[in-house]
């Protein structure tokens, strides 16, 4: 049983547990084929709601799951991400992942979210390592991971993604 991660704020972001009322705003990008071209696309509001519900069940067990990401200046939901165990392949350990509305791209929000997630991984959950994946052509995401201390481990052909690892920093 892990300690549960608190909701938190960064300089520009508020990170909190997703609520059912967040689903329409989250689906605006989690269901957008352009925004999600490098990862899983929700094809319906129902599928988006199910994805969030599955992660919330794991939050109770693992102590972590993706947060709803709110831009503090506007109060708008702009992203979803953080630490989690992949519900479909838990063998990778705790991963960090993120998805943002295209209007929020290129503004450093992913870096801010990943740094907050890693601080929680190190100081609250005391994880020995955090993993991440990025497709070869997802240059922005690969840059975020490298900037936040991840090292490329190898290419995983069956997933067509690079695997990244970041060890605990005390």
Structure commentary:
The chain contains 4 helices and 8 strands; from the N terminus they run E-E-H-H-E-E-E-H-E-H-E-E. The protein has helices at residues 23-30, 45-62, 109-123, 139-147, and strands spanning 8-9, 13-16, 67-71, 77-85, 94-100, 129-134, 151-156, 161-167. Helix 1 (23-30) crosses helix 2. It starts with 7 loop residues before the first strand and ends with a strand. The protein has a 5-stranded antiparallel beta sheet, with helices on both faces. Strands 6-8-7 form a 3-stranded antiparallel beta sheet, with helices on one face. The mean pLDDT is 91. With 170 residues, the protein is an alpha+beta fold.
Low-confidence stretches: none
Q: What class would the helix/strand composition place it in?
A: alpha+beta
**C-alpha termini separation:** 22 Å
> How do the SSEs run, as a string of H and E?
EEHHEEEHEHEE
**Number of helix segments?**
4
Summarize the structure.
The protein has 170 residues and is an alpha+beta fold. Helices cover 29% and strands 27% of the residues. Strands 1-2-3-4-5 form a five-stranded antiparallel beta sheet, sandwiched between helices.
Topology:
Layout lengths: L7 E2 L3 E4 L6 H8 L14 H18 L4 E5 L5 E9 L8 E7 L8 H15 L5 E6 L4 H9 L3 E6 L4 E7 L3
Helix pairs in contact: 1-2
For this entry, give a set of tags.
170 residues; three-stranded antiparallel beta sheet; 27% strand; 29% helix; 4 helices; alpha+beta
């Amino acid at each position: 049983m892990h300690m549960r991660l608190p909701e938190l704020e960064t300089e520009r972001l508020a990170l909190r547990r997703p609520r059912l009322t967040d689903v329409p705003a989250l689906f605006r990008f989690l269901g957008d084929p352009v925004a999600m071209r490098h990862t899983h696309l929700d094809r319906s509001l129902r599928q988006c709601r199910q994805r969030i519900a599955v992660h919330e069940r794991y939050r109770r067990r693992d102590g972590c799951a993706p947060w709803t990401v709110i831009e503090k200046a506007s109060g708008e939901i702009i992203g979803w991400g953080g630490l989690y165990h992949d519900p479909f392949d838990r063998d990778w350990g705790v991963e960090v992942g993120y998805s943002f509305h295209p209007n929020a791209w290129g503004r450093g929000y992913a870096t801010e979210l990943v740094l907050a997630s890693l601080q929680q991984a190190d100081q609250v959950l005391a994880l020995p390592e955090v993993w991440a994946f990025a497709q070869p052509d997802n240059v922005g995401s690969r840059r975020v991971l490298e900037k936040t201390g991840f090292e490329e481990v190898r290419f995983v052909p069956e997933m067509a993604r690079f695997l990244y690892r970041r060890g605990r920093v005390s």
